[in-house]
């Protein structure tokens, strides 16, 4: 069923390109994000089965430039390059995504687009580029629409960019904002919606204001099971409804912890979410296992270090074996030392990425 927002965005859309247009362009940098409350399971139109919560990263960024020209024969065409090189498999995924956006951006149907993306993180780092990549494209398309219509940027610009990014990749909806971002309807949270993400509407307590994320690379390989396969395995998952209840409760508890400076609850819920996500993967039919022995060794060592030193460190894991070590900037020296001596030997070729919470996307004005 079409939502009110969908109808509104379609009604307000810019129909065609101005007759005298030669070329326009837009460029954005947009971050990847790391989920603490996981989105795992969706329904029609990339809507989430439960609310999720992430924070945006600072260093893991996609920069995307979109150049739009009127198409010579009036039919949509696209060229896509990653790091100035053609990439056919991404190109067909992006083409399908952009064609699905014609109801929102009808002017695209008569456009020739050239998209050039660059990721700051290596392709072999195991970091999914869909959140940063899709959100940067969505921001460019919204900015192009704005330029064509000549209407000044309104307060809904990022809301719409989040909505459009969501249609490309669910987690990308959260990348259009900085710091902590939630996505998915949650009882008692005014701004929450399944259709777009929102920044938190309360003050973040001191312990969580400057979180760091050391991404410990266990394997640089492409995921054995894609997140879309994982989402669809949730449809017949025996624990699906319990999982969605658990995620809703965890979301509420984590929001409270972030508000009230409750580090203990933050750690408990963050780790519960990471391990529950992988528990769901193992108990899907067919079941699959993305954790590696080194992931488990690292988890054990993080917990032991916390017990022994009382340092605020915790971990989360996405749909892969890499462990995200989350800690506060205050204990950076101690944690860097711990990573170097105890964790780096378990990383693939000693690789880890030094990242932290970031301020969100940035428009590049040429
Ligand atoms: O946005 P997708 O379809 O790639 O799914 C993301 C799933 C997780 O990364 C495992 C969790 C999340 O909320 O980001």
Structural commentary:
- Helix 6 (240-260) packs antiparallel against helix 7.
- A hairpin with a 5-residue loop joins strand 11 (313-317) and strand 12.
- The chain contains nine helices and 14 strands.
- The protein has two domains: 4-200, 2-Layer Sandwich (Ribosomal Protein S5, domain 2), CATH 3.30.230; 210-356, Alpha-Beta Plaits.
- The mean pLDDT is 95.
- The strands form three sheets. Strands 1, 4, 5, 6, 7, 8, 9 and 14 form an eight-stranded mixed beta sheet that branches. A four-stranded antiparallel beta sheet has the order 11-12-10-13.
- With 366 residues, the chain is an alpha+beta fold.
- The structure holds (3R)-3-hydroxy-3-methyl-5-(phosphonooxy)pentanoic acid.
Give the SSE map.
Elements: H1 4-11, E1 24-37, E2 42-43, E3 47-48, E4 52-70, E5 77-82, E6 85-86, H2 88-100, E7 111-119, H3 130-149, H4 157-168, E8 180-183, E9 197-199, E10 211-216, H5 227-233, H6 240-260, H7 263-282, H8 293-309, E11 313-317, E12 323-328, H9 332-343, E13 352-356, E14 362-363
Parallel strand pairs: 5-7
Antiparallel strand pairs: 1-4, 1-14, 2-3, 4-7, 4-8, 5-6, 8-9, 10-12, 10-13, 11-12
The structure holds (3R)-3-hydroxy-3-methyl-5-(phosphonooxy)pentanoic acid.
